[in-house]
Write a structure and sequence with these properties.
Length: 248
């Protein structure tokens, strides 16, 4: 049964190369869910959204956000360190710890300026691929990981939820402090802008879909791990979950 071996994974299973790619819209649960499945799978965790946010913060602090060429130059020169330990959230540019700063509404409001710049995307996609290549087991999440950054990943999943569920989750996450109009802009408005450069609302070919609208957090984790198992079985004939493989 798909999912069963995740919980019986041997030490050897947890040493094997594994790349899991997760995409989805704002508030679908990508970051929290990917972080947790990375822990369960003994993998590192790459938050590519944090990279776009760090770049937006850097360009804003340099005062170049409205100059696309200067934005690209700033990204070429950025000294960015991002923790990939699922238990350590840390983003540093130069000597400045911006872990908290990149989550502020002021950054959410301008991050699409850099995320819709195609030259910026090329630079960040290259960095993300190098990061993925540099780790044996990794869960990477964002908007274009299943389609552009890691189309050859062992498992690729689009995590969705209804717009209502996503807005409610974001509202709860922000402690109910943001009014409904501002929240709708932060969730759906930003997604609409970002969708102009990448499609993260419909699964690409071979990408599994997990809809968490009716699932709580633990049930979402179970559904994601089951989907990782299912795809590994399909993609790797020697995997113990393969329908025709040796399961002894
Ligand atoms: N299935 C779920 N049910 C309820 N809340 C969830 C679920 N998945 C995630 N959350 C919560 O929703 C909020 C947004 O999740 P987050 O991981 O930040 O989403 P994203 O990275 O897609 O924007 C967080 O507070 C998270 O704990
Ligand atoms: N691979 C990625 C990851 C994020 N982005 C963009 C889309 C978002 O507006 C920003 C921030 O992403 P993030 O995942 O932190 O966004 P959420 O707050 O979780 O909705 O970066 C992207 O274009 N491509």
């Amino acid at each position: 049964m798909a999912g069963s071996t995740t919980h019986q994974a041997t030490a050897k299973d947890r040493e094997a190369r594994l790349v899991v790619a997760v995409d989805g819209p704002s508030g679908s649960g990508k970051s929290s869910v990917s972080r947790e499945i990375a822990r369960r799978l003994g993998a590192v965790y790459l938050d590519t959204g944090a990279m776009y946010r760090a770049v937006a913060w850097h360009c804003r602090s340099q005062g170049v956000l409205d100059d696309p060429e200067a934005v690209v130059a700033a990204v070429q020169n950025i000294d960015l360190a991002l923790s990939v330990d699922p238990d350590v959230e840390r983003v540093v540019v130069g000597t400045e710890d911006i872990t908290e700063a990149i989550r502020e509404p002021g950054i959410s409001a301008v991050v699409s300026v850099v995320a819709t710049n195609r030259a910026v995307r090329e630079l960040l996609v290259a960095r993300q691929r190098a990061e993925i290549d540099g780790h044996r087991r990794i869960v990477a999440e964002g908007r274009d990981i299943t389609t552009v950054v890691a189309p050859d990943a062992d498992a690729r999943i689009l995590l969705t939820a209804s717009a209502e569920a996503r807005t409610a989750r974001r509202s709860a996450q922000l402690g109910g402090t943001v009014d409904a109009t501002a929240l709708a802009e932060q969730v759906s408005g930003r997604d609409a802008r970002d969708s102009s450069v990448v499609d993260f609302m419909t699964p690409g070919e071979g990408v599994g879909l997990v809809d968490s609208t009716e699932l709580d957090f633990p049930a979402t984790i179970q559904a994601m791990l089951a989907e990782v198992d299912r795809q590994q079985a399909v993609n790797h004939p020697n995997h113990p979950n393969h329908p025709e493989g040796d399961r002894a």
